[in-house]
């Protein structure tokens, strides 16, 4: 499965464009090789470039989700007494064909494709949907007059009507260089362009994927490309931006940083760039770091600026941030470069002056933005793989077969390295490599000679090369960084620890002195004027590099710095031939053999008595406990965990909590085999966790304990989790039928369902279910009974379950050794700035005494300022500053404010006469890095996902998996099987609007919810036609906007935005859309319908004997074929739960047990029937409801 990667773009001196992946080892030539380029500028989703004809081109990556744009126009009609509704309108009316406002005339044939890179998807058709409700067949909506409120129903006073026509166009020029054509004069751009830079995508989310594209013409003028965004990757027009002088080069960062260089050698900085002014307002001038040599090249990142002066010196700008884009001072760095480029997380690359190699800046971290040292990238080109194959095979043959071949190889290579015989040598790849190395053009001659005279047998060269390296180190006072176990140490560059100029004592070295001169696969540098194109094994000479789309993860190693050797590649190919299935089979076989041997060897000693009957093991510690009596507060306690190992080797544990009550020592104890869950509690002030038992779940009052440090809490959590699992004889990964859930904190829990959970004479209450934690951090999870489990993080990244267990704080035996990977997640923390209007000053932060805090959370009850708001827990760290969030529900004005008549009320994005208060939402991103049994599925980010709840199917049979991207596109995953749960690619399913929820049932019934709250059914989905053919609009329940759908075997349930749960009646195989909605319950947050049509929900406001909880797992009981809605609710673990999926649980209770019970005790059965029939009338519409007046108890563990 492919790990997520990004690309470094570069142009060689012949104008060919290459890319190097962060997980790759070879430069790959760009697919479209017809053009020669001067410069490129890249971001993650695309690359812009200037070709040698001075024309601008864009290269948009192909993806599974197409780039579509919706064109729309409205057909308007007026009623007259003679002919009814007709096209004849009054002179004061709008056009017959117009835009939504009626002010712009736009007929169907007036719409043309903006450039040759687009194509129409289909012809015009009528949209038969208004505000989530289906209209009559013609799509008409009626009103009294233009403009007015339109409804789908025709009334006696409906004098006008209109309908919406839509048509989609699709961007087709992907994975090719598409020429940007000027709208005004197709043959001529405003000026021939000389430099280009793209960035600015982090300034705002609106419109989606907006980019700032800046260009510099040969005349020194700066141009800005308007309207470049996801739906319009080419933009529309060029607009001129005035500058204080002639500009040579420009650089744009991902946020609001933009620098350019002038002919005179100064830099200019653009100020005032924000979401409303992406072009900025004014320029400021920054002087060159050196008075004799002006700035030649500049590159900016998130909050860093690097530049190269005309004497090729490299400089770093101190003090740059969004409040001070000009920075404060320059620091000179060691090394001489032609140019530098800054990447996504401020990583830096440069092109060396003398050898034209690309160098990567090592040691760049958030705390040390200038990095430590330059290191050359020695990756070869993709095209070299086949040409270097002969030397590789010789090397591997020497290793794996005979000494003769090995000696021959050594002799050949030693002969090749001899400078005196270079005229008679055959031009084999190995000889070319060593000749290039020996004749390194610009490097110091003494070094080239030293390395050339050394023995270079590739299998015995380590000693000689190390000697040469140490000699060079002594000579140049350099530290050589040589990682352990590197098969080819000479491929590693010598580099110094830190090279800020201010800290250096020895003279400045040119970058060429770091050149790698004795490696088999890297070559000496050639002068720029070399007319012949370089041979197979020579390293390319680079003219330009762009890291704007390259994200280097500081935790994962790069493969760029060691040349691939023959030995490692052959070992790699050998290991790749062993499939995971074979490995699993071998493990199983070895385990069986060891088990049989153990049994065989212990058989003779069975009659001996056991020496030790049982053992006791105790762990003690000091924690704090949230006491049971009022006033509730934390108190210091001693805690002891006692573990008993019985004669059968089974372990049981008891947890004792010793406390003082009125100066009297008391204790409470908990048997760990009764504990149903141990969960970390989200609390800024304490490192706390909660223990639940069935009784405490009913009370909504867990045992809460707090540790002094996070590490101590994790130690206790890990130990208690392991003890609980041992007490319940649970180990290894979750089964395919497991029920997965996620808390509001993002923690993942899994429970093994008992057959009695769903049916049977004695149904198991769901508060007795045992939940254990699995490492990782997610927002939602979906599973099925074939073991296919996918999850989505808060940052919409898709993750695949690998089959492991443990991870996170769960270490040792309780965690699997393999299948655990690093996982990260990013989410936003929100606070609100509140203001009230007064007649003197207008809106101000001085409210009434009864008002909420002027900086608060969403409820207004808790004060949250920018300074006192912390990340959710110590595991999280801030990764951005506070910024205004313009995406708040209800809309905002240009400054992010929302208005209302008073606190709290419904907010809207425009001011009216009655609005006396306003608020705006501030957001700040934080990140968590953890680990667990999850692998990322790039590159599409997802909002929702659903897997078909299949039961006994063939292992090789495809598993239907549907998803919705975070942009609202509906996707179908191809190639998902039990053996390959990741699948192969996404298939896009067209829709007329963005969607937010999707679910696929057991017989390929696909239901979905659109963003406007309307429901849709997808027709004709089958294994042979995985995407189906068309959407059917299903009317929503009266005046309700839907937000989630879940489809089981035969049942369809939906959830509306007010928390009401609805069941779809009348669904039959011949009429799968059903006939009507039936209300089931209220106060529901999330729900999941399983393969047996079982219904589980996350409910709000569940009453316990001690307190009220939000986010509680509840199970619908009494679900039968004749009673698909069920009868009543059974309350499980909570609160603080956010998501649950039971779509893997296809375990049915044995049916043989039911009749036996009936025969044995008919009276009891009769009594049960009476109770059931009574419960049927009583509970069929049981609401999850408590009195609204009752406040939530602050002691309960809530979200």
UniProtKB/TrEMBL annotation:
Residues 464-489, 1146-1199 are annotated as: Disordered. Residues 1-19 form the signal peptide. Its main location: membrane. It comes from the Eukaryota. Residues 616-725 form the PH domain. Gene3D superfamilies: Pleckstrin-homology domain (PH domain)/Phosphotyrosine-binding domain (PTB). GO terms for biological process: autophagosome maturation; regulation of autophagosome maturation. InterPro entries: Beta-propeller_rpt_TECPR, Peroxin/Ferlin, PH-like_dom_sf, PH_domain, TECPR1-like_DysF, Tectonin_beta-prop. It is found in: Cytoplasmic vesicle, Autophagosome membrane; Lysosome membrane. SMART domains: DysFC (SM00694), DysFN (SM00693), TECPR (SM00706). Keywords: Autophagy, Cytoplasmic vesicle, Lipid-binding, Lysosome, Membrane, Repeat, Signal. One of its GO terms (cellular component) is nucleoplasm. GO terms for molecular function: phosphatidylinositol-3-phosphate binding. Pfam families: Hyd_WA, Pex24p, Tectonin. Belongs to the TECPR1 family. PANTHER family: DYSFERLIN-RELATED (PTHR23250), TECTONIN BETA-PROPELLER REPEAT-CONTAINING PROTEIN 1 (PTHR23250:SF1). This is Tectonin beta-propeller repeat-containing protein 1. It comes from Taeniopygia guttata (Zebra finch). The lineage of its organism: Eukaryota, Metazoa, Chordata, Craniata, Vertebrata.
């Amino acid at each position: 499965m492919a790990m997520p990667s990004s690309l470094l773009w570069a142009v060689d001196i012949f104008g060919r464009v290459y890319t190097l992946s962060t997980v790759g080892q070879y430069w790959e030539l760009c697919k479209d090789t017809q053009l020669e380029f001067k410069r490129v500028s890249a971001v993650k989703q695309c690359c812009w470039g200037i070709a040698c004809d001075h024309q601008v081109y864009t290269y948009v990556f192909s993806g599974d989700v197409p780039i579509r744009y919706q064109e729309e126009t409205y057909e308007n009609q007026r009623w007259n007494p003679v002919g009814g509704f007709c096209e004849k309108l009054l002179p004061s009316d709008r056009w017959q064909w117009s835009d939504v406002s009626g002010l712009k005339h736009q007929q169907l044939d007036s719409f043309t494709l903006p450039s040759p890179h687009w194509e129409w998807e289909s012809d015009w058709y009528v949209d038969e949907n208004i505000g989530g409700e289906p209209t009559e067949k013609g799509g008409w909506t009626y009103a009294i007059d233009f403009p007015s409120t339109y409804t789908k129903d025709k009334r006696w006073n409906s004098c006008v009507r209109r309908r919406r026509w839509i048509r989609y166009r699709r961007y087709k020029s992907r994975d090719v260089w598409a020429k940007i054509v000027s709208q005004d004069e197709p043959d001529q751009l405003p000026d021939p362009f000389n430099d280009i830079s793209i960035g600015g995508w982090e300034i705002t989310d609106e419109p989606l994927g907006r980019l700032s594209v800046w260009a510099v013409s040969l005349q020194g003028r700066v141009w800005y490309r308007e309207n470049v965004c996801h739906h319009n990757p080419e933009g529309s027009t060029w607009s001129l931006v005035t500058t204080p002088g002639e500009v040579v080069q420009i650089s744009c960062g991902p946020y609001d940083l933009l620098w350019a260089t002038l002919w005179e050698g100064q830099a200019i900085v653009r100020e005032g760039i924000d979401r409303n002014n992406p072009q900025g307002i004014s320029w400021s001038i920054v002087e060159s770091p050196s008075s004799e040599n002006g700035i030649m090249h500049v590159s900016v990142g998130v909050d860093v600026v690097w530049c190269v002066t005309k004497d090729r010196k490299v400089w770093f700008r101190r003090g740059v941030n969004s409040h001070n884009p000009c920075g404060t001072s320059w620091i000179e760095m060691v090394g001489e470069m032609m140019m530098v480029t800054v990447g996504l997380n401020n990583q830096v690359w440069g092109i060396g002056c003398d050898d034209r190699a690309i160098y990567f800046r090592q040691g760049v971290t958030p705390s040390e933005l200038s990095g430590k040292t330059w290191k050359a990238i020695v990756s070869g080109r993709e095209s070299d793989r086949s040409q270097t194959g002969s030397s590789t095979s010789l090397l591997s043959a020497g290793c794996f077969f005979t000494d003769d071949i090995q000696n021959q190889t050594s002799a050949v290579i030693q002969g090749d390295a001899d400078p005196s015989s270079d005229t008679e040598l055959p031009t084999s790849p190995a000889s070319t490599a060593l000749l290039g190395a020996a004749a390194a053009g610009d490097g110091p001659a003494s070094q080239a000679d030293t390395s050339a005279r050394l023995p270079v047998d590739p299998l015995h060269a380590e000693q000689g090369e190390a000697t040469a390296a140490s000699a060079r180190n002594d000579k140049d006072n350099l530290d050589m960084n040589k990682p352990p176990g590197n098969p080819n140490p000479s491929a590693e560059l010598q580099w110094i620890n830190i090279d800020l100029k201010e800290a250096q004592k020895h003279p400045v070295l040119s970058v060429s002195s770091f050149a790698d001169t004795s490696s088999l696969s890297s070559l000496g540098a050639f002068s720029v004027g070399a007319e012949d194109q370089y041979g197979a094994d020579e390293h390319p000479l680079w003219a330009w590099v762009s890291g704007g789309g390259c994200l280097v993860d500081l935790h994962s190693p790069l493969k760029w710095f060691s040349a691939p050797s023959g030995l490692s590649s052959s070992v790699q190919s050998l290991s790749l031939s062993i499939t995971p299935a074979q490995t699993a089979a071998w493990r199983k076989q070895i385990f069986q053999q060891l088990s049989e041997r153990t049994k065989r060897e212990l058989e003779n000693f069975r009659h001996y008595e056991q020496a030790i009957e049982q053992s006791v093991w105790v762990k003690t510690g000091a924690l704090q406990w949230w006491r049971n009596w009022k006033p509730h507060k934390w108190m210091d306690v001693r805690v002891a965990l006692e573990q008993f190992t019985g004669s059968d080797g089974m372990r049981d544990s008891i947890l004792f909590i010793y406390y003082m009550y009125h100066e009297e020592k008391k204790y409470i104890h908990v048997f760990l085999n009764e504990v149903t869950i141990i969960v970390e509690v989200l609390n800024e002030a304490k490192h706390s966790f909660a223990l639940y038992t069935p009784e405490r779940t009913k009370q909504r009052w867990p045992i809460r304990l707090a540790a002094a440090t996070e590490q101590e809490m994790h130690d206790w959590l890990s130990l208690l989790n392991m003890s609980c699992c041992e007490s319940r004889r649970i180990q290894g990964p979750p089964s395919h039928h497991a029920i997965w859930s996620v808390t509001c904190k993002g923690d993942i829990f899994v429970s093994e369902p008992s057959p009695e959970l769903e049916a049977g004479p004695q149904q198991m209450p769901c508060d007795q279910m045992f939940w254990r934690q699995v490492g990782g951090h997610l927002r939602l999870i979906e599973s099925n009974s074939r073991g296919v489990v996918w999850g989505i993080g808060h940052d919409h990244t898709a993750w695949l379950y690998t089959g492991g267990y443990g991870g996170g704080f769960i270490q040792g035996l309780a965690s699997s050794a393999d299948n655990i990977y690093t996982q990260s997640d990013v989410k936003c923390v929100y606070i609100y700035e509140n203001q009230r209007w007064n007649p003197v000053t207008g809106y101000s932060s001085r409210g009434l005494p009864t008002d909420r805090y002027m900086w608060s959370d969403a409820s207004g009850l808790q004060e949250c300022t920018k300074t006192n708001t912390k990340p959710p827990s110590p595991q999280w760290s801030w990764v951005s500053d506070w910024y205004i969030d313009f995406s708040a529900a209800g809309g905002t004005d240009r400054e992010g404010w929302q208005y209302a008549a008073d606190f709290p009320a419904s907010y809207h994005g425009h001011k009216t006469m009655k609005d006396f208060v306003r608020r705006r939402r501030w957001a700040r991103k934080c990140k968590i890095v953890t680990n667990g049994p999850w692998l990322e599925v790039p590159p599409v980010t997802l909002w929702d996902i659903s897997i078909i709840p299949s039961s006994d199917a063939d292992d090789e049979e495809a598993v239907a998996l549907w998803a919705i991207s975070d942009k609202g596109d509906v996707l179908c995953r191809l190639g998902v099987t039990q053996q390959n749960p990741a699948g192969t690619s996404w298939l896009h399913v067209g829709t007329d609007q963005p969607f937010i929820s999707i679910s696929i049932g057991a017989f390929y019934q696909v239901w979905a919810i659109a963003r406007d709250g309307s429901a849709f059914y997808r027709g004709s989905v089958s294994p042979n036609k995985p995407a189906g053919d068309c959407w059917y609009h299903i009317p929503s329940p009266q005046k309700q906007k839907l937000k989630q759908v879940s489809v089981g075997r035969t049942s369809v349930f939906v959830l509306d935005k007010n928390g009401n749960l609805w069941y779809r009646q009348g669904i039959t195989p011949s009429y799968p859309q059903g006939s009507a909605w039936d209300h089931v319950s209220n106060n529901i947050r999330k729900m999941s319908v399983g393969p047996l049509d079982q219904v589980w929900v996350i409910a709000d406001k569940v009453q316990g004997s001690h307190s009220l909880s939000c986010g509680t797992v509840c199970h619908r009981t009494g679900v039968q074929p004749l009673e698909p809605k069920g009868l009543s609710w059974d309350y499980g673990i909570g609160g603080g739960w956010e998501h649950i999926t039971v779509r893997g649980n296809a375990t049915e209770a044995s049916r043989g047990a039911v009749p036996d019970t009936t025969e044995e005790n008919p009276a009891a059965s009769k009594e049960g029937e009476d109770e059931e029939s009574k419960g049927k009338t009583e509970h069929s519409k049981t609401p999850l409801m408590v009195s609204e007046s009752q406040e939530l108890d602050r002691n309960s563990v809530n979200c």
